[in-house]
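Notebook entry, structure prediction.
Reason for the run: the old model in the group folder had no record of what sequence produced it. Starting over properly, with the input documented here first.
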Amino acid sequence: MAKVYEFLADGFEEIEALAPVDILRRGGVEVQTVSIMGREDVMGAHGVTVKADTLFEDASDFSDADLLLLPGGMPGAKNLQEHEPLAELLLRHHGEGKRIGAICAAPMVLGLLGILNGRRATCYPGFEKFLEGAEYTADLVTVDGTVTTGKGPAAAMPYGYQLLSYFREAEAVESIKKGMMY
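New structure, fully documented this time:
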């Protein structure tokens, strides 16, 4: 079974974090939310508190991850960007040729780590300057190799379905879309 970890930091964009988790779980993908805040309760950018499944420091070494996810929102993305153990994990995961997803402001984390160098990517308008070495597409969702980026809140659903397509056949993804009236 596929394993996905999504990293949460105070100031995350709620829809960008929860829509992909919901879609992936509906599709039978195991998803664990991981707080980098040193506590389970993480406060979203709009005052919604989410209880993470685990803390970064209590989790495994993430070697079983098929996909690592970064939701956007500010200051959530900045908090993710400043977490050095997460940066090391993202670089290792990317170096192993495994999938990474980031949406809204969070592609800046990948850009500043050099993960987007030579790739096509999208992000929330105004954050393009942080996509170092990338070609900015301005699309709702951009896939380039093992990296999937989303533009912002409106991209949360198509981004989630794109992520699900890595683990489920097209018919299963379409069935979930239909069930969610998308």
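Summary: Helices lie at 14-26, 76-81, 84-95, 107-112, 156-164, 170-179.
The old model has been moved to the deprecated folder.
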